[in-house]
UniProtKB/TrEMBL annotation:
The lineage of its organism: Eukaryota, Viridiplantae, Streptophyta, Embryophyta, Tracheophyta. It comes from Cinchona calisaya. This is Sulfotransferase. Keywords: Transferase. It comes from the Eukaryota. Belongs to the sulfotransferase 1 family.
Length: 330
């Protein structure tokens, strides 16, 4: 097995010592859908732009018991999950009608590790009040070791890979267009089927967190975008319980779960002042509005040919069939 292949958790500390220039030079590299370079590191395709910040996170992050890590593949519903978890954790700091989500994009309130580690190799993450909520796209087996030495909770949100692909495809049309021309949908789909997408292969990442959630259900909560859409209220209740911040009878009676669900809903967030098209994420150089496209389940049907769907569904069945994890294609 090459050093960039998926590795066992127990090998990570050994690998961490080898992150030098030679390691970097020898990594397999490919162009992503957007035309940008990515490297296969620790078993996942890492975009060149975030490679060094992610290495710093892997090397330096020191977890604490109260930490919360939100893990997703890009376009699996990260923005939504950030809004929900932020609202649950900070529900005593202000009322829902004064939520910071009104003026700030969820990515400004809950950063990705590559945003904070992109500014400094070893940033001070603990200056803001409350528990640290951090977001990542990296797989379970590539997470910093210290996360497993503390009670840090991990919430993983996955989405039907075909929807995640279509969402990603639309998103890349809006970024990096000056330097790189995104490739056509059918060509991008071929790369997706080979697992060559940012933080992919999707099957390795999803299965990694899926298995971890069974092995250690108090540490890893595995959610599906489709379930979150279908039954948001119960899922919000469930997330709070998992975080050991359950809603009190009083809060339930006062409709707080419904209020948070409504606040974090697609139309609500999309129309917030902080997410208007003129607002840009400084660390990400992306319009805040680009994180809100349709927010639907099954939009792949409008873009993929029956043959593409059939090939995608077969691959998904092949990769997930034995795991018990199912995605709908009707
Ligand atoms: P990221 O991983 O780059 O942060 P992410 O937030 O996961 O992006 O992806 C955006 C997707 O979530 C978009 O999906 P679409 O392209 O299929 O529409 C976006 O519309 C959707 N999304 C954002 N906010 C919500 C929400 N509140 N409810 C449901 N879906 C949402």
């Amino acid at each position: 097995m090459g050093k960039s292949e998926v590795i066992l958790d127990s090998n990570i500390s050994e690998l961490q010592e080898k992150w030098d220039d030679q390691y970097f030079q020898e990594l397999p590299r490919e162009k992503s859908f957007s035309g940008n370079l990515m490297f296969k590191h620790d078993g996942f395709w890492c975009a060149e732009k975030v490679f060094h910040p992610i290495i710093s996170f892997q090397k330096h992050f020191k977890s604490e018991d109260s930490d919360i890590l939100l893990a997703t593949l890009p376009k699996a519903g990260t923005t939504w999950l950030k809004a929900i978890v932020f609202s649950i954790v900070h529900r005593n700091d202000c009322t829902v009608d004064k939520s910071p989500l009104i003026n700030s994009n969820p990515h400004a309130l809950v950063p990705f590790e590559y945003q904070v580690y992109g500014k400094r190799e070893n940033p001070d993450l603990r200056s803001a009040p409350g528990p640290l909520i951090l977001s990542t796209h990296i797989p379970h087996n590539a997470l910093p070791r210290s996360i497993f030495d503390t009670k840090c909770k991990i919430i993983y949100l996955c989405r039907n890979p075909l929807d995640q692909f279509i969402s990603q495809w639309h998103f890349i049309q809006q970024i990096d267009v000056e330097e790189n021309k995104p490739i056509a949908l059918d060509k991008a789909f071929e790369l997706f089927l080979q697992g060559k997408e940012y933080f992919g292969p999707f099957w390795d990442q999803i299965l990694g967190y899926w298995k971890a959630s069974f092995k250690n259900p108090e540490k890893v909560l595995f959610l599906k975008y489709e379930d979150l859409k279908r039954d948001t209220i119960n899922q919000v209740r469930n997330i709070a319980k998992f975080l050991e911040l359950p809603f009190s009878i009083e809060e339930e009676k006062n409709g707080l779960i419904e209020d948070i669900t409504k606040l974090c809903g697609f139309e609500s967030l999309k129309n917030m002042d902080g997410n208007k098209p003129d607002k840009v994420q400084p660390g990400l150089q992306i319009k805040n509005s680009s994180f809100f496209r349709k927010g639907e389940v099954g939009d792949w049907v409008n873009y993929l040919t029956p043959d593409m769907v059939s090939r995608g569904a077969s691959l998904i069945e092949e990769k997930f069939g034995e795991s018990g994890l199912k995605f709908d294609f009707v």
